[in-house]
Specification:
InterPro entries: 4-hydroxybenzoyl-CoA_TE, HotDog_dom_sf. The chain is of the alpha+beta class. Strand 3 and strand 4 form a beta hairpin. The longest helix has 18 residues. The chain is built from 3 helices and 6 strands.
């Protein structure tokens, strides 16, 4: 197992498509769940961000499918936030079976929206750092 932040899920039958594969929209939901779990592990609650007047937003998501995932499969989802110097950040996530087989990758571009100005904040890493009790989970 990787030393990246990881969440394990079990694929439920109702999450599959007509071919019995995990539905593409569900990959995105599971990826978002892992991102929120990383925030929670860092001590960041949604209400703490809202109290600062910001909220995370998704600007772009890309899924790369590598192998089939079907009902009953357990999948480990990693999550790594990558901050640069701009207003947005990237999140790179892998979906693997417990044996390490890569089944999908999700790449996300996000930001923190100033809820009053309706614009991205200049330094999202600083906002996360200011409310986190364990910013090391982010690598901050």
């Amino acid at each position: 197992m990787s030393d990246l932040f990881t969440v394990r899920i079990t694929v439920r039958a109702y999450e599959t498509d007509a071919q019995g594969h995990l539905n593409g929209n569900i990959y995105l939901q599971h990826a978002e769940h892992a991102r929120w779990e990383l925030l929670r592990a860092a001590g960041i609650e949604q209400n703490a961000l809202l109290a600062k007047g910001v909220g995370p937003i998704n600007l772009e998501s890309t899924i790369r499918y590598r192998r089939e995932v079907v009902a009953g499969d357990e999948v480990d989802i990693t999550c790594a936030f990558i901050f640069g110097e701009g207003k947005s950040f990237r999140v790179e996530q892998t979906f693997t079976l417990p044996d390490g087989t890569l089944v999908a990758e999700v790449f996300n571009v996000g930001g923190l929206l100033d809820l009053k100005a309706r614009k991205l904040v200049a330094d999202p890493a600083e906002y996360f750092r200011s409310v986190a009790t364990d910013p090391g989970v982010f690598g901050l």
